[in-house]
Write a structure and sequence with these properties.
Elements lengths: L2 E4 L18 H11 L4 E4 L6 H5 L4 H9 L12 H19 L7 E3 L20 H12 L5 E5 L6 H9 L1 H4 L2 E5 L11 H18 L3 E5 L16 H14 L3 E5 L16 H17 L4
Parallel strand pairs: 1-2, 3-7, 4-5, 4-6, 6-7
Helix pairs in contact: 1-10, 4-5, 8-9, 9-10
Amino acid sequence: MSISVFYDPRQSVSGINSFSPSAGKPAKFMEALQSQAICHDIMPVTPATRKDLYLVHDRQYVDEIFAGVQNNGFENNDPRVPEACLWTVGSMVSAVAYAPRATGPVCSPTSGFHHAGHRWGGGYCTFNGLMVAAAKFILANPLAKVGILDLDWHYGDGTDNILKNRPALAKQVLNLSSGKYFFDSNDDVSQFWAWLQGAILELNRFDCDVVIYQAGADMHIKDPLGGLLNEAEMARRDRIVFREINASLVFNLAGGYRGDKSSDGLGNPVLRTHLNTVLEAIAKKGGLK
């Protein structure tokens, strides 16, 4: 079995001086897929436009980012960042548009979305590709409902901020972020499992047409910016999501900060976790329980 991956090399930016590896992670993720001989089909990405970004972001904020007078989510004004964002957002938009026609979960190898609010960015997030994808999907399917299951370790505050500023979208988009409730490695793991089951039940009751799953690797207990689950529990998390959500599914990479960011493949613990997510998605596609 193979998985559809919406990727264009222009999604990645190398050489960004940042604690977060997310700017260059799409390319490393694709290299890891190939090095481990995981079957995948590279799908075409249509880049987002500024008009697309205006659907959820303040126009002045967007224009100032591209003009370099407003810092991007990496707290710099490197012009490569917003240009790459057109491709990362485009990857998510393209994946979500395709998902209802897919035979299983599809992948957008992207990060850096959920801390970008209506008029601001930060936390390595410049534009909110989750919300742009949801808005574009609803434009094309006016009665559709979109769910966002955000299992990055950190709260998707930017997503909630956009929903507050776009009340029409809020009627058709349900955002559930575990980071709003779990933010300490000493939290009770059993409480997380109970929360996850409740979140999935809520998404299924919302009757989503598509669910966007932020499969954050920073939920790993050894992550320096997070931590609750061990490696086996991370796989269990993904398995539960892929098997119990009754909707088309798109997943992305979200956060992850463990280990040597320069290493590739299984030598990089963050990439290893992301690859395990892919394997769980492929198992779901193959009908495995």
